[in-house]
């Protein structure tokens, strides 16, 4: 499943679309950025409600390819600018982290 396919699956809007539409290798759900640094895997999705540019910095550090913002969180312009500079996709959904995690896990398991 690619980033754009994940966005479609979640009914998410793509907020930062200047990225390589790479296949997802997994996903990690957390709002604690130090936890993300320690446990997220390269090529995966970060499922979170943390909508600020530090989230992009952490995603870049661990080579996460897409940040999935849940609960329709408002987003700051500087986050989108940082994500564009780094080539990290940012998508936003109305669904909560539990639902998003389950949908992505199910989709990745079946591929």
Question: In terms of topology, how is this protein built?
Answer:
Elements: H1 3-10, E1 13-16, E2 27-29, H2 33-39, E3 45-48, H3 53-61, E4 66-69, H4 77-86, E5 89-92, H5 97-109
Parallel strand pairs: 2-3, 3-4, 4-5
Antiparallel strand pairs: 1-5
Helix pairs in contact: 2-3, 3-4
Write up what this structure looks like.
By secondary structure, this protein is an alpha/beta fold. It has one domain (3-109): 3-Layer(aba) Sandwich (Udp-n-acetylmuramoylalanyl-d-glutamate--2,6- Diaminopimelate Ligase, Chain: A, domain 1), CATH 3.40.1390.20. 42% of the residues lie in helices and 17% in strands. It contains 5 helices and 5 strands. It has helices spanning 3-10, 33-39, 53-61, 77-86, 97-109, and strands at 13-16, 27-29, 45-48, 66-69, 89-92. The protein has a 5-stranded mixed beta sheet with strand order 1-5-4-3-2, sandwiched between helices. β3, α3 and β4 (66-69) form a beta-alpha-beta unit. α2 packs parallel to α3 and α3 (53-61) packs parallel to α4 (77-86).
Q: Helical proportion?
A: 40-55%
- Strand portion: 15-25%
Shape category: globular
- Biggest β-sheet strands, sense, barrel: 5 strands, mixed
Strands, count: 5
Count of individual helical segments: 5
Low-confidence stretches: none
Which structural class should the secondary elements be placed in? alpha/beta
The CATH superfamily title: HprK N-terminal domain-like
- Average of per-residue pLDDT values: 97
Read across the widest sheet, the strand sequence of neighbours is 1-5-4-3-2
**Secondary-structure element string:** HEEHEHEHEH
Q: For the record, what CATH class applies?
A: Alpha Beta
Question: Terminal Cα separation, in Å?
Answer: 7 Å
**Overall domain count:** 1
**What name is given to the CATH topology?**
Udp-n-acetylmuramoylalanyl-d-glutamate--2,6- Diaminopimelate Ligase, Chain: A, domain 1
CATH architectural designation: 3-Layer(aba) Sandwich
Give me the Rg, rounded. Answer: 12 Å
């Amino acid at each position: 499943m690619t980033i754009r396919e994940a966005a479609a699956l979640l009914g998410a809007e793509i907020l930062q679309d200047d990225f390589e539409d790479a296949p997802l290798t997994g996903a990690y759900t957390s709002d604690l950025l130090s936890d993300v640094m320690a446990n997220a895997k390269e090529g995966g999705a970060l499922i979170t409600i943390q909508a600020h540019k530090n989230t992009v910095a952490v995603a870049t550090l661990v080579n996460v390819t897409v940040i999935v913002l849940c609960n329709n969180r408002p987003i700051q312009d500087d986050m989108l600018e940082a994500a564009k500079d780094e080539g990290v996709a940012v998508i936003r959904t109305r669904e909560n982290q539990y639902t998003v995690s389950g949908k992505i896990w199910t989709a990745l398991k079946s591929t």
